[in-house]
Amino acid sequence: MMTVFQYGDDINTDMLFPGKYTYTCSTAEEILPHLLEDLDPEFAGSVKEGDLLLGGSNFGCGSSREQPVLGLKAVGIEAVVAKSFARIFFRAAINQGLLLVECPEAVAAFEPGDEYIIDIEAGTIRVGGKQFAFPRLPNEVLAIREAGGLLAWTTRQLEEEGR
Amino acid sequence: MGKTFAEKVLGRKAGKDDAVAGEILFLKPDHLLTHDNTAAIIGKIGPELERFGVARTDLSVIVLDHVIPAASEKTATNHQQIREFVNTFGIEHFHDVGAGICHQVVLEKGLAKPGGVIVGSDSHTCSYGAVGCFATGVDRTEAAALMLRGITWLKVPETIKINLTGKLQPPVSAKDLILTIIGDIGAGGAAYKAVEFHGDIGGLSMEERFTIANMGVEMGAKVAAFPADDVTREFLISVGVSDGSYEALWAEPDATYERERTYDLSTLEPVVAHPHEVDNVRPLVDSGEIEFQQFLLGTCTNGRLSDLMEAAAILDGKKVAASARLLVLPASRGVFEAAIENGTITTLSRAGGIVLPPGCGPCLGAHQGVLAPGEKCLSTANRNFKGRMGCKDAEIYLASPATVAASALTGKLTDPREVK
Question: In chain B, what residues touch A163 (CB-CB under 8 Å)?
């Protein structure tokens, strides 16, 4: 069963992954023990594949720090649903293929015990018997996601350009 | 309909002069800034680098600053790998350990120009808005792709216009102004947006503009920009950038703004950002009595010569409270040397200050001044997030260099207007 981890507004990158580990941890194995360490010490030990993170507004604000995105992707987080996201975090998620859903209504509708069902193609999210729409990503950005992330997309572009 | 700064700069760079807010543009930035994280970035693209090489040898600006000198075998190895990469691929703009904090180095080396576009895998890349450059932070993977292909996409942001009137009344400073603005707009209030400063900006020095632009990201902004004026021009000439080497761009008078705010600089007062969010800003006089065990003067926000001199003037001939430590972190080797030559470093040291090498030092909690549980630090840096200085059970407060210096004398929060 999906566990939903719920946090508040302005969850910053130091809470998601402490800055003191930034230059000693960069692989998933190194990141995982410290994921959300100063926000929720229980998280790293209990999160499992298919779980979901729920955030308030400005989720992921602060540093240009990719470890939270790599870590959440590596533990198999289904999606982060928040009222809004900070832009560098949002961009990192697109580039890594971590699904972010910006939908304040879906955050507000959550009751403990609810599960989320997300349809990326349709741009809809269901929670507690209610369905909400979330903004679809622009085509240029979807192409990066569909290619399997930014590095795969870039390699394809370079090949097409004959580099 | 007139264009904003963001619409003009990004549109021109992408070869699309009619670009408007909301559009996604593909463009080639002038530079890509990376620092110690270059090791992790090139680690993502080893085979691709061998196969394709780098897009341009003059694209990357690499400055080693985050954990310098290396604090462990791991961070030393990162630096070593970066030097090897620089040599192998002939990277032209490399600044090794000791040069200073990346953002100050980019400005001092004249790499950020009015009308230019710079992206960096560091959130405070927005600092270069101070010279009218469109500069913004990206993630490590974006930096890796840029190294290979030299192209990125940016959504043209909507813009918030901030009108400034009047003059700052020292010791009220640019730091008090930007903290006041962030307190009003909120930590996410300018998310995805550009911020333009208009009005009486002529009285703000280049250093004050750096402090303001540096903290744009603390309200979520993509960039916080000033128009290039005579102050900018003089600064650029001082760092070897001639008038003819750039084309400054600025918003048109009838540009469309998402919202506008006005601040009268002459009525501002000293403020403090309380833990654990930068927008938790209160007037100093309403902040209560707070004792601090550590003070941090410097960083990319307030580590320039005028900042150090302002603090030194307050500390001259006096001593930091016995209950506290004062860490001094010059923003670059250039700042450090100038502060040695004019006696500022001697003054700060005699007052009890501990001078750290020009770099990020304790700001991100990796080394050189980590806090203990229960300790409080008053800092001139840009972030007070929980755990930021290495300990989740410590508290960080943010204020101006004058407030930090005045408070260092007493060991508790002190109004710089009351220091004789």
Answer: 52
- Residue A157: inside a domain: no
Q: Which helix (H) or strand (E) holds B335?
A: helix B333-341
- Interface pTM (ipTM) of the complex? 0.90
Look over chain A and give the mean of its residue pLDDT values, rounded to a whole number: 93
Section B187-212 average pLDDT: 97
Q: Which pLDDT tens digit goes with each residue over B231-260? A: 999 999 999 999 999 999 999 999 999 999
Residue B420 has pLDDT above 80, yes or no: no
pLDDT for residue A148: 87
Average pLDDT over residues A77-86: 95
- Determine phi and psi for B103, rounding to 5 degrees: -70, -40
A contact test, residue of B24, B103, B123, B193 with most A CBs within 10 A: B123
Would you state the pLDDT for residue A121?
A: 81
Residue B418: CB atoms within 10 A of its CB come to: 9
State pLDDT tens for residues A107-163: 999 999 999 999 988 899 999 899 999 988 888 888 998 898 999 999 999 999 998
What CATH number did the domain enclosing A20 receive? 3.20.19.10
Mean pLDDT of all residues belonging to chain B: 97
How many structural domains is chain A composed of?
1
Instruction: Tell me the pTM.
Output: 0.95
Domains contained in chain B, CATH given:
5-263 (3.30.499.10), 272-418 (3.30.499.10)
Asked if B153 has any chain A CB less than 8 Å from its own CB, the reply is yes
Give contacts of A140 with chain B, Cβ < 8 Å.
Answer: 24, 26, 153
Neighbour-count burial for B219-235, b at 16+ CB within 10 Å, e otherwise: bbbbbbbbbbbebbbeb
Å between A81 CA and nearest CA of chain B:
17
Q: Which of B24, B40, B72 sits opposite A26 (nearest CB)?
A: B40
In a domain, A159, yes or no: no
Does the distance separating the beta carbons of A84 and B139 come in below 8 Å?
no
Q: Which of A38, A58, A66 sits opposite B140 (nearest CB)?
A: A66
CB atoms within 10 A of CB B29: 22
Q: Which domain holds residue A110?
A: 4-135
* Interchain contact, A22 vs B37, CB within 8 Å: yes
Touching check for B191 and chain A: CB below 8 Å?
A: yes
Cα–Cα distance measured from residue B94 to residue B83, given in angstroms and rounded to the nearest whole number? 9
CA distances from B207 to B173, B210, B232, B265 (A): 11, 5, 10, 16
pLDDT the model gives residue B160: 98
Q: Which residues contact B39 (CB under 8 A, 6 or more apart)?
A: A23, A26, B77, B78, B79, B81, B82
